[in-house]
Structure formats: C-alpha cells, structure tokens
Amino acid sequence: MSRLTLQGLAADGPLLSPVAAGVWRLDEWGFDDAALAAWVEHAIALGITTFDHADLYGGFRCEALFGRWLKANPSRRDDIQLVSKCGIKPPDAARGWRVKHYDTSAAHITASVHASLQNLGSDHLDLLLIHRPDPLLDTDEVAETFERLRQAGKVRHFGVSNFSPAQYALLASRTRLVTNQIEASLLHLDPFIDGTFELCQQQRIRPMLWSPLAGGRLFDAGTKPALAAELQRLAGEYAVSAATVALAWLLRHPCRPLPIIGSRKLSALDDAAAACRLTLAREDWFALLQAARGTEVA
C-alpha cells in the first residue's frame, strides 16, 4: 500500500498529511518510550506525519511526553509537522488561575509558544492555532503577535480552532489564517449548515476536524441505530472498517477537511490512512447523511 503524501492546507499554507494524529490523551495511554516510538513511527510509515497538540493537553504534560521521542530522535523533525494550540487557562491554583478563562494576549501567546517549543524539543511550530474564540481577543494585537513569531522563525503558519464563521472572518481580516480546527462528524453536523464549510471554500482553506468519529459513539447501535447499521453495511460493501467509511464520508466534502485521529491503537491509524484512499459514491454519502439526520434531504 502506497504511503500518503502531503497536501497544502491553504494556497500559501503548510504541507500537512491528509489526516493528522492527535495526542490529546497521550498522558492516559501509558506508553513507555518504546511504545511511543512504535506509535509515532507507525504513523510516519503510513504517511500520517502531522501531529496535533495543544499546550494544555494532559494537564500541560502531553507536549513534553511527545518531546521525549523527538529529543531522542532529532533527525526526525524534518519528517513531521507539529501543530499546537494555545489560549485556554483552566482552573489551576499552582499557576494562579482561579477560574477557567481564555487569554489571547501577546504575552500569553508568546509564552505559550516558547513553552511548547521547549517541551516538544523543536525550534519552530509548523502551525499555531488560537484554541477557542476569546471574547476579549484584540484582533490587531493577535495579528501583530503572529507576525513577530513568524519573523522570529518560531511559528510558520497560523490558524484558529472552534471559531464561528464571523469570528474567523474578523481575525482573517487582520492576518493570514490557514485553517479553522472544528468539531465535525456524522453526529456533529453543525459545520455543514452553519456556514463554516462554506467559508472554508470561499477562503480556500481546509478545516481540521476534531472528534471525527464522535469518540466511537458512531458505532454504538444504542446511539443512532440506523446510522450504525448503515456504516456497517457500507463497510461490507467497500471491504473496509466502519471507521474508514465514517472518515471517508468527511473527506468527501469539497472543502477537503483534515480529520484528526486521537487513538493509541495502531489499527486506528491504519483505518485513517485507508479512508484517504476511499471515495464514497454520492448516493452512499447521502445515505449516511440521512441516517445521521433521521430524515431524507428536503
């Protein structure tokens, strides 16, 4: 089976793998150094070379855990792409944070990037995202901060996560953004109807998708029996897993989304790679949409 190839995220954006490996639960996986290396190397061998992080994942531990592998294998840095996010401050007495809040100030963004680079063992991030829309986000301040980080060589490209179309458009009016990382799956159809995917096509950017398999609930007959049954039926027809079908359904959209797979199982990486090679027939795509919505299109 051929290896996946890198694809542009936007016209002048980074080259990323067509699906990404998410590490937000890395601290829960119980990997020792050998198991982590095996997981990372398996992903790379498939062509899944983009790794999605955030500063706060695992209580601010996951980047450093992944960094143990990269620091032991520095020659691998040019073979992978590192994405990280910042801006969320959960309650943390040790850090002096009393309530959960967002911080998109220049000082916090800059400090977060420096901490991520130190933890990951890299001199740059390929892509930095603002993790959540901040009601106090100053667009000019963020744009200026992004430019300073770009000029310093610390971050090569910038985007956002969980932004509405209007929030995205506002920040994009001040600085070049290359993606919006959002939740989307057959159980979370909002981006298909709220203007998010339309804006992505208009801006010619590809969205990144978190929870593309809805945490596995897609395959639970108790959640949406008709959807689980249709996924299994199509899995049989296409001779792939149900997860591959569900991911191929997302990949079929013309905005060319980039799903993020967050599983410790090597087979989950295999399923994701297989989805990149599967094109669902249009009628099968609509059959899944109908099963997910519980009604046919109007």
UniProtKB/TrEMBL annotation:
Gene3D superfamilies: NADP-dependent oxidoreductase domain. Signal peptide: none annotated. It comes from the Bacteria. Residues 20-286 form the NADP-dependent oxidoreductase domain. Pfam families: Aldo_ket_red. Transmembrane segments: none annotated. This is Aldo/keto reductase. It comes from Vogesella indigofera.
